[in-house]
Amino acid sequence: MRFISAMLLCVWSAASAQDTVSAELVSDPFVENYEPEVSVSGNVVVGIMTIAAAAAITSDQVAVNASAESSGQRICLKAASRDGIYTSRNVYAVPDGAAGNVRLPYRSKLANIVRDYGEHEIALSATVGDCDSGASDYVLLGSTSTGESDSTVMYLNSFGATDVFVEIDEEIEPCEYISEGRRTTFDFICTLNVSAGDGAVPITIIRERFGREQPSISLRLIGATQ
Residue 65: CA atoms inside 13 Å, Cβ hemisphere, count? Predict the structure, then answer.
């Protein structure tokens, strides 16, 4: 009986993988860089993703949670290691009418290098539009694999802030400073009280430097719900 159950589970998992819709990679060729001596400066928001998304880039299982707002749109997927050595940025076209998990083909030629990074050392973000559009609409990233952690986190570059908070629906929660290792691209991690859904959740990032407030940042997380 256990054998039959296991076989049915394998068949169901395989069918689920085959049923997952894939976006089209617009970037040609796939764009990624590995530069040990590079000095990176970028945006405050470096990643918004489920924990499972980080491991998904080495197994070509990265998925975006598409909804009515992202269906038929272009999506810019960026990845960055915390030390700034590995980065990638690629554009995908999400099929019209797509909903739920849509796979973003991640054909890395540096998977062996990326695989060496541990938990909270790789951040991914997906924004609506081309990579240079400056969009503040992010789409929740995850994995096509079933049974993975669905905890949602955000990785931030504080740019010298001593305290960072995230506000969702008037609830303000502190973010955690990452004290270990090289922190070139991000140095704070925030746990978000959201999960995959068909909505859009407004988020405000609040930064303070020794009690003095710095400019806040507002964004929307599409494909999420509270």
Answer: 24
